[in-house]
Amino acid sequence: MDYLIAFLIGGAICAIVQIVMDNTKLLPGRIMVILVCTGAALSALRLYEPFAEWAKAGATVPLIGFGHLLFKGVKEAVDSQGFIGIFYGGLESAAVGISGALIISYLASLVFKPKMS
User: Of 57, 66, 105, 117, which alpha carbon lies 20 to 30 A from 6's?
Assistant: First the structure.
């Protein structure tokens, strides 16, 4: 059942984003920023954590979940280290995902020949 919920919630988030992309003139980069900021804002309002616990990967894998992860890392770092935690908490909590994305992207660029136009 967890797989079905994750699939449906993740698919619904992606469908909503696709509808926004198709019906507005927002560029993909701006939509990505909106998603990350929305995740962080919902986390600050304490609305995203219960949703993420219920939907599991369906809520944590899309970009809105990345905003939640950044906020959670900053909050934990500020609680333990004070003001300085603002500067490193988000990157510390998301380091594995960011590193994985960079490594996989680099390996993909070696396998596939990128063509600049």
Answer: 105
